[in-house]
Design a protein that fits this description.
10 helices; TIM Barrel; Endonuclease; eight-stranded parallel β-barrel; 8 strands; alpha/beta; endonuclease; Xyl_isomerase-like_TIM-brl; nuclease
Length: 295
């Protein structure tokens, strides 16, 4: 009888230790200063439940969930406005413990934020998706059609539209993170002109690297106040760990000194010799970012 009781006690100790270890690991993950995500459209899973599964397989902490295609539609081709479909995404996120870093409006890579007539329903649909999914950041790239280096005459209308968009996302306490082709100095001036705490920067390593700018210096110029998220990858050439243009330990040191915390999102940095190998490319880049930023 005594030996049976001792066996039960031993089993309870093992179970308790296992539970506490899992809880500690989960708590540690939730408290990470830096979390690593991947863009769902770049892993070929745009607004698909499989994006969470693939993100879990490559050990990413989250995904940047796209609003869907745009084309000539008045707004995004999105499932997120459907309560039933939206719940599927939320359930899968919870099941696999893969978060949503931000809601992306990637349609504006090729579409003009300055000239499209139906900006209002697009922004409103995105903000509603943010609210319903409890996501605090939206990603808005000012792509080729609204490139302020090439089209400086568009600045007044872009500023006006972003002021309005800031008011919309401010209603839910969220942020729209814009990506521009500007230097950090010029982007900071743009953000100060917009003058909204709800419009911030989505900093992209590739923009700085492609233009020969030092990434840590750019981050310092932009400052913690203006930085909502980071697209932590370069133009496709090699994996991040092999990219001599990206000094990742120095970048981490800079962000640590800035006391910034948030999402590092892998967009590209694919090995051109195997550019279509999604798991290899994104798995390697996620692993490297975690090695530098989470160890």
């Amino acid at each position: 009888m005594k030996s049976k009781r001792n066996l039960i006690i031993a089993m309870l100790v093992v179970l308790s230790t296992t539970f506490n270890s899992c809880a500690t690991a989960q708590s540690s993950k939730n408290k990470q200063q830096y979390k690593v995500a991947v863009c769902d459209w770049m892993i070929l899973k745009r607004q698909k439940l499989g994006s969470f599964t693939l993100a879990a397989e490559i050990k990413a902490d989250g995904i940047e969930l796209d609003m869907g295609g745009l084309g000539n539609r008045p707004t995004f081709d999105s499932k997120l406005g459907d309560p039933v479909e939206r719940q599927k995404f939320l359930d899968k996120s919870k099941e696999l413990n893969v978060g949503i870093s931000s809601i992306a409006m990637s349609g504006f890579y090729a579409q003009s934020f300055a000239k499209r007539e139906t900006i209002a329903p697009m922004i409103e649909d995105c903000v509603k998706a943010m609210k319903d999914m409890k996501v605090k950041v939206a990603y808005l790239p000012l792509g080729t059609e609204s490139d302020l280096n090439k089209n400086p005459e568009l600045r007044p209308v872009i500023v006006e539209r972003l002021k309005w968009a800031g008011k919309q996302v401010g209603k839910i306490g969220g942020v729209i993170a814009i990506e521009t082709s500007l230097s950090a100095t010029e982007e900071k001036k743009l953000l100060e002109e917009i003058d909204s705490k709800y419009i911030k920067s989505s900093f992209n390593f590739a923009n700085a690297a492609d233009n020969g700018r030092d990434i840590p210096s750019e981050l310092k110029i932009l400052g913690k106040k203006h930085l909502a998220q980071i697209h932590a990858s370069n133009t496709d050439k090699v994996w991040l760990e092999n990219d001599k243009a990206i000094n990742m330990p120095e970048i981490k040191k800079t962000l640590d000194e800035m006391k910034w915390s948030g999402w590092l999102i892998v967009e590209r940095s694919r090995d051109v010799a195997q550019v279509h190998n999604v798991k290899a490319n994104y798995g390697a880049n996620v692993a490297y970012l975690k090695k530098i930023f989470q160890n």
